[in-house]
Amino acid sequence: MRATDILALPAPAQPPVQYSWWVWVLGLVLLLLIAAWYVWLIRSTRPRMPDDSPARYDGIRAEHVALVDEAYQRWASGEATLRELHLDLNHAIRSFATARTGIDTSSLTVAEFGRIEHGSALAVILGDYSEPAFAAVSDAEAALACEEAREVIRTW
Q: pTM to 2 decimals?
């Protein structure tokens, strides 16, 4: 064997191959699709800001004012006691707060209502309803309690 048989001469260098135009277009399209997917992902998972237009809650207000009126009619006809009236008003106010805020308020204390946005009026009225709802004898006025409930529902 000769030394020249083992050593082979390297092949001459080839110039780099140029990509076709469609490879660049395909790459840009894929990058745009990835960017669009990220934009859609971020926008679709972002929490929505609630629409606070007053008309949005008109149906909810009317429904809960009707609950207050029904409770008052039950009391006025003698079907319910003053205690039951205040329990019904408590339920109507809590139901309204749940519908308005989206937070289950059925088990919140009066102090916890004060921490809800615009819940201070609810805390006051529910605090007023505690005594007649749980006392054996109360000097609460049914018409005044119902009017206060209607006013809180109408203004919030």
A: 0.62
